[in-house]
Design brief:
Layout lengths: L4 H28 L10 H55 L6 H22 L2 E2 L2 E2 L11 E4 L2 E4 L7 E5 L2 E4 L4 H5 L16 H13 L3 H54 L3 H33 L1
Antiparallel strand pairs: 1-2, 3-4, 5-6
Helix pairs in contact: 1-7, 2-3, 2-6, 3-5, 5-6
Length: about 300
Amino acid sequence: MRVSSISVFHSITQNLGRLQSDMYKANNMIASGKTINTLSDDPAGMMTVLDLRSNFANIDQLARNIAMGRTWVNMGESALSQTEDVLIDAKVLCVSMASDNNGAQARSDAAEVVDGYLDQILSLANTQVGGRYIFSGTKTDTAPFTLANDEVTYAGNDTPFSIKLGEDLDIAVGRDGETIFGDDDFDWTDPAVGHGNIFKTLVDLKTYLQNNDQSGIQGTLDKMDTHLSSIRSLISNTGGKIIRLDVKEKIIQDLNLSYTDRISQLEDADIAEAIIELESKELAYKAALSSSAQIMQLSLVDYL
């Protein structure tokens, strides 16, 4: 059976084209260091790699969330610790001013000191991280506390700001300032109300000192103890949040290593083996060129 010259030509060009494609793939593997450079190289492997890279993006976002969360938690703990220090100083002042050893002038002078304590705690209650308020609930763009005419009002909400640590897993890193420093829904001129509000306690103390009210000063001590107990409990709670963040960070680091290793197994080429493969393809191509030239010459002679 005679094979037409055109059929021989098409067969030769297809074979040479296939060998050229094989050389190109081998050369590309050496240049990139990857066994998978296009979808056609390994469709199933490429899809797995793309899924893993998508997981990397999710992990990277979680890592950023954890870093931000740790900053918020640490800043919150620092603000609460400093608030505790101010309250301790205020309590020490109460003890001193409740004593018979001090008179009206000393207490009047102490009222100015308490006014300074009030400003300090107000500043701490309005602590910011990156321009966002950590004690304002989810209204992080709003200053939570405002002082005017010896009254402090809260402008945040009662939902602590949270970060996402995974699917259906959030952790509160901000706080509802009202639960820490006390609600403001009362008559600020009435010393019999607002006992759970730190600012109200300090405002009342300042008034007692200005009025030389020794019994009022003495009665403030119990309120100070209550505030200190509450603040210390919140500080203690911070440690648990840090532990949760550390555990999640360790899990993410392990996943990162696992995904990196899996992608390496799928993608990384054995360069020495790839070079041998390329040389083999080049030899095959040269041999094919030589034999193809002879076949085409014979076919032409046969045709003539």
